[in-house]
Specification:
heterodimer, A: 5-stranded parallel sheet, 5 strands, B: alpha+beta, 5-stranded mixed sheet, two-stranded antiparallel sheet, 6 helices
Amino acid sequence: VTRSSVLLVDDRIAVRQTVESILRGFDAEFTHADDGASALALIATRPFDVIFLDLKLPDIHGTEVLRRACELREPLGRVIILTGFLDPGAREDAARLGAFKILTKAPISLGDVRNAFTAALAELHH
Amino acid sequence: LIPVNVEAIRERLGTASDSVAEMLGRIEDVANQATEFANEIAGFAASRRGEKQVLDLNEVIRSTLAEMQPHRYQAQLTTSLMKQPLICEIYETPFKQIVRNIVLNAFEALLKTKHGMVTVTSMRGGNPGRTGCAIFEFIDNGPGIGTNHLHRIFDSDFSTKPTGNGIGLWLVKKQLELIGGTIQVESSPGAGARFTVRVPLAAPMDESAGT
């Protein structure tokens, strides 16, 4: 099994670092993006196994990032939405666009993040 | 972010150090309290206060109470509100928060009371000013408040709850002051508590309509 590549998209560095700490036990390489445009630029140039995506980004809404990312790359990798405030509309949009899991950031659950990540990896390696 | 990081630290720490675990516990407690505190303040924040509105407080209270969940506290919530409107000029969101706050306090006070009950009533009365006021009473049959606590209950640093931040009733009082209202409490140990809220009516009472 090769090292998995993870993209963390969130405008708060503390969130990205926290997720990285939580997933420390996994053999993964983490890349950070602090807004939608830089996330899309990264996705355009290389594949990621798992993408953690915040919805409330400073430049582009997360669901829009997800939509554009789907146009950039097929398959995209497993997308885990990790967001603070989730309106039902955004949840539907994200699910329709094929988000793998939708998790809340208020508060972040260590168990949920790890379970979602493990499940995402398990699907990839099948 | 604090709780999840504390959890991650605790996990890495294993059972190695009890004193460190104890300190982590304190960080967790304080973080939880801070979250609760921030949520409470946010409910009253000026930025979310909106414009003053002329509303029937009976209706505002009715809709606020409808969203509360007395069964979670094994308590009963009953109302006896006037059919006649009590029109006041208020900030709606903070006013609802005021009502929620008083009722939640009562629910929490009832946790150890069998057949705990909170009753909310409304009426019209004289003062403040010439317009008269809407009067709401929130009555519970809980353990009551000790006389040594009673005069401090609206202080910003007073709480009897182990995790309370003491800000609730203080904010309630401050928010009522913004709309010219008042709050008073009467209670004796073992005999429940009665919070009385007065808010000036927007216009003088129409005497012909009777009271």
